[in-house]
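Hey, I'm writing a tutorial for new members on how sequence and structure tokens pair up, and I'd like a real worked example in the thread rather than a made-up one. If someone can provide the structure for the chain below, I'll link this post from the tutorial.
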Amino acid sequence: MDFEVVGSGLGFPEGPVVMEDGSVIIVEIQKGCISRLWNGKREVIATPGGGPNGLAIGPDGALYCCNNGGFEYHEVGGLTIPGNCPPDYSGGRIERIDLSTGKVDRLYEAVDGNSLRGPNDIVFDKEGGFYFTDLGKGFARTRDHGGVYYAKPDGSLIKEVDYHHISPNGCGLSPDGKTLYFADTMTARLWGFALTGPGEYTPHKPPFLRGRVITGQTELCYFDSLAVAASGNICVATILKNGGFGGITTITPEGKSTFTEIPDPFVTNIAFGGRDMKDAYICASGTGQLIKTRWPEAGLKLNYNA
């Protein structure tokens, strides 16, 4: 597999969105900014501060951002690694960003009176609402748990979908929009929820099991963000596979998986683009790069783009 470096020297890149003009918008979590990459150039288009993380284009053409409030960072063996909650933590929130002006507006900072801790990834459904995950926040000896939520982009509704997980991270929808997938980082599990409507689902095995475990990994690794292929396969960015390089774990809806190694221990995200949707943009975040390669199958087109 050949790789092209689209951007380098990035401050822990995440959340790639492939735009209609071929440019790629990413967050640089460590720098607290959102950048556009194209033709070897980098332009900062917004600076929300904190820790901008997952991104998605909404039905109004604006950019919606999960902001985790920031991390502490460590340099280990030439790699940049995010850690616990920093002293200057600015709070978790969902933000709307005007792409023409860079103006940042906060939409949500809490749900049912509970503060968001570390919003992480986001996906819009066909109805124009969005699901997002909250990874929670880590401390030296304790951890705040996150959850999975549903909200509307006009600020009128936010609701909890499920809270019974350790570290919800990447999320995506099946091609028919009937299954919500999300990856849990620390357990390296992929979950699926059978949706019945916007923000609603049928519990898998009530009262204890709300979602279905699609797969769990037996080898040491950590699941991060994900993208869904047109075939229905789920491509999950995977960190530190067996303590070595990361990569992409491709998982079928039935739970069978294969692994593609990427030369960076901290592979955190993947997004698809190009005319045939086989251009894969992968965040090699430990080395601060966005890389591009050809993928063996087409990615699923998202419900909205700009």
